[in-house]
């Protein structure tokens, strides 16, 4: 079987179009424009690209974007003071502090200083707890994007066996919680899991989020299973010397031969993450305005 390729670019464009419509209605009916503040500390090259893309996408859907770029040696007190100011600003509905932070800053403390209602990343301990107990919360953007694609493909996920490969706080754990909420039977696999290949072969859904290039091969995939690849890894290009190539955590060439549906890298999960960030900002704005 050759799997259907799930087009994340197209799906993300449709999510962004819905967000833009919602923003237009909020402006017309409630005289409110959703606003997203993004805080970047230091000059990590990858983070700068992410932050630029977030700002651009925010403006494209008609929302306000507030970028705060701080020097790498910013003190914790100064960063917390800025977050406090954003917490209290009624024009700001979502706050995102780009990770990783420089080493001298306590990431946990900084994340938990954002008020949970504006925590559009869904990383605040209160949102983590709310998600894991099935209460209304802000949901981390990447797992939310994966869930949307899975629901779109399957309709109901109820009763399906899902294996999430990777146990990170940002993707693996919230992904497992979301799938559980949708009544999947969920297993989280990780580096100590015994016979991970055989475990994955029992899955109707495999979500790969480990950060190991092309680890999950077609051999691991049950015929017809859905494969969601969260990995973004840069490897030396196999044919072009001196060049690099972007690959996922899944060996696409072999997995596509077994899967019923599969997300590519690039053009799969990646574009959904920013689209979900925009959707979370609109959600936060709606909740703030009753
Ligand atoms: N760095 C890499 N991914 C993310 C993300 O989803 N949110 C934040 N805040 N930082 C990141």
TrEMBL record:
GO terms for molecular function: methenyltetrahydrofolate cyclohydrolase activity; methylenetetrahydrofolate dehydrogenase (NADP+) activity. Residues 140-287 form the Tetrahydrofolate dehydrogenase/cyclohydrolase NAD(P)-binding domain. GO terms for cellular component: cytosol. It comes from the Bacteria. It holds the Pfam family THF_DHG_CYH. Its EC number is 1.5.1.5, 3.5.4.9. NADP(+) binds at residues 166-168, 232. Pathway: One-carbon metabolism; tetrahydrofolate interconversion. CDD domains: NAD_bind_m-THF_DH_Cyclohyd. Homodimer. Belongs to the tetrahydrofolate dehydrogenase/cyclohydrolase family. Catalyzes the oxidation of 5,10-methylenetetrahydrofolate to 5,10-methenyltetrahydrofolate and then the hydrolysis of 5,10-methenyltetrahydrofolate to 10-formyltetrahydrofolate. NCBIfam families: PRK10792.1, PRK14186.1, PRK14188.1. This is Bifunctional protein FolD. It comes from Neptunicoccus cionae. The gene is folD.
């Amino acid at each position: 079987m050759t799997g259907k390729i799930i087009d994340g670019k197209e799906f993300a464009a449709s999510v962004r179009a819905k967000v833009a419509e919602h923003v237009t209605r909020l402006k017309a009916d409630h005289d409110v424009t959703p606003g997203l503040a993004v805080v970047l500390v230091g000059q990590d090259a990858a983070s700068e690209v992410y932050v630029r893309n977030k700002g651009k996408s925010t403006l494209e859907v008609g929302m306000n974007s507030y970028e705060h770029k701080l020097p790498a040696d910013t003190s914790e007190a100064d960063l917390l003071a800025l977050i406090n100011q954003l917490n209290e600003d009624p024009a700001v509905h979502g706050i995102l502090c780009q990770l990783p932070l420089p080493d001298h800053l306590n990431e946990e403390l900084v994340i938990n200083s954002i008020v949970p209602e504006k925590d559009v990343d869904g990383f605040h301990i209160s949102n983590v707890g709310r998600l894991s107990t099935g209460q209304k919360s802000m949901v981390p953007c990447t797992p939310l994007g994966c869930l949307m694609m899975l629901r779109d493909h399957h309709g109901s996920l109820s009763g399906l066996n899902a294996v999430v490969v990777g146990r990170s706080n940002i993707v693996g754990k919230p992904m497992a919680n979301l799938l559980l909420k949708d009544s999947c039977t969920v297993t989280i696999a990780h580096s100590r899991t015994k016979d991970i290949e055989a475990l994955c072969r029992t899955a109707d859904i495999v979500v790969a989020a480990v950060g190991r290039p092309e680890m999950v091969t077609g051999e691991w995939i049950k015929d017809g299973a859905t494969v969601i690849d969260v990995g973004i890894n840069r490897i030396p290009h196999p044919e072009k010397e001196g060049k690099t190539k972007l690959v996922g955590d899944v060996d696409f060439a072999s997995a596509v031969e077994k899967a019923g549906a599969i997300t590519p890298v690039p053009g799969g999960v990646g574009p959904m993450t920013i689209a979900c960030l925009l959707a979370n900002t609109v959600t936060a704005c709606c909740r703030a305005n009753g």
